[in-house]
Design brief:
Helices cover 77% and strands 0% of the residues. The protein is mainly α. The protein has 2 domains: 113 residues, Alpha Horseshoe (Serine Threonine Protein Phosphatase 5, Tetratricopeptide repeat), CATH 1.25.40; 152 residues, Alpha Horseshoe (Serine Threonine Protein Phosphatase 5, Tetratricopeptide repeat).
Length: 265
C-alpha cells in the first residue's frame, strides 16, 4: 500500500510525500527482510530523483535496486530499474551509457511482451536518440510508444509520448503538428491530475515556444483550439507515420493536420 501511494503521489507531483512514503516502505521491508520489496522501494526513490532532474540522486538507489533485482530475477522490475538509470545517465549527458541501459530494458520488455511497460521505455529511448541527433530513430521510438500506450495504457504514457514526439517533429520544422500533439496531451494531463515532470518541463516549454514562434500567435491559438475540440482517437489516427520524418522535414502541406493557412505576417 505504501508503494502504491508513493507512485500516485509522485505522478501528482508531490515529490516530498512520495519520497517519505518510499522511505517508510523501504524501512519496513528491510526490517522484515523482504528483498524484492526493498528493491521496489529503491526504484521508487530513484524515480523521485529522476523526475526532479536529480541525476546524482538516481545512482545509489537505482544501482542498489538493480543489483537486488538481478539476484532475484524479477524481470519486469529489472527493466524499470534500467530505464530509470538510463534517464539518469541521459540527464548527465552520458548518452553512450544511457543507450546501453535503455537497449537492455527494451529487449527485456519485448521478450516479456509487456507492451505497456515497453511504451515507457521507448519514450526514454526516443529522448536519448533525439539527444544523439538521430531524429529518425527518435521519431520511430516515440511513434511506437504512442501506439502501444494508446492500445495498452497507461494513459499517462500517451501524454508523455505525445510530448516527446512533439519535441522531435518541431525540430524538423513541423510546427503545426507539434502544436497539435501538445494540445492533445494537455487535457489528458489535466484529466489525470498528472503535471509534466519537472525534469521534462523545460523541453515541453521549449517545444511550445518554438511552435508558437513558427506559426505566429494567432495561428497557434487556432490550431490549439481546433485540436482540443477533437476526440483523442481522431487526433491519433491522423498522425503521420515515423517514416514521414525519416530523412528530413517534409513540406508542411504534405502532412495531415495542415490547414494551408498563409504564413503569419
Amino acid at each position: 500500500m505504501l508503494r502504491e501511494l508513493g507512485l500516485v503521489t509522485r505522478e501528482q507531483g508531490d515529490f516530498a510525500q512520495a519520497r517519505a512514503l518510499f522511505e517508510e516502505n523501504l524501512a519496513l521491508h528491510q526490517i522484515v527482510g523482504d528483498r524484492a520489496s526493498v528493491g521496489f522501494a529503491l526504484i521508487g526513490l530513484a524515480d523521485v530523483a529522476r523526475d526532479q532532474g536529480d541525476a546524482a540522486g538516481v545512482h545509489k538507489p537505482g544501482e542498489q535496486a538493480l543489483t537486488i533485482l538481478r539476484e532475484l530475477g524479477v524481470q519486469w522490475a529489472i527493466g524499470f530499474a534500467l530505464n530509470t538509470l538510463a534517464l539518469g545517465a541521459y540527464s548527465e549527458g552520458d548518452l553512450t551509457r544511457a543507450l546501453t541501459l535503455i537497449r537492455e530494458s527494451e529487449a527485456l520488455f519485448r521478450g516479456l511482451q509487456a507492451d505497456a511497460s515497453l511504451a515507457e521505455v521507448l519514450i526514454t529511448l526516443g529522448k536519448i536518440e533525439r539527444a544523439r541527433g538521430n531524429n529518425a530513430a527518435a521519431c520511430q521510438a516515440m511513434s511506437e510508444a504512442l501506439r502501444l500506450a494508446q492500445a495498452h495504457g497507461p494513459r499517462l504514457m500517451v501524454a508523455a509520448a505525445l510530448e516527446g514526439l512533439a519535441s522531435v517533429v518541431v525540430a524538423q520544422e513541423h510546427a503545426e503538428l507539434a502544436a497539435r500533439l501538445l494540445a492533445a496531451a494537455a487535457p489528458l494531463r489535466e484529466q489525470m491530475g498528472t503535471p509534466v515532470r519537472p525534469v521534462d518541463q523545460a523541453a515541453v516549454e521549449q517545444t511550445l515556444a518554438t511552435a508558437r514562434s513558427a506559426l505566429g500567435a494567432d495561428t497557434f491559438a487556432a490550431v490549439w483550439a481546433e485540436t482540443q475540440a477533437l476526440p483523442l482517437e481522431q487526433i491519433l489516427s491522423t498522425i503521420p507515420s515515423a517514416a514521414a520524418f525519416s530523412i528530413s522535414a517534409a513540406p508542411l502541406d504534405t502532412l495531415p493536420f495542415t490547414t494551408n493557412r498563409p504564413p503569419p505576417a
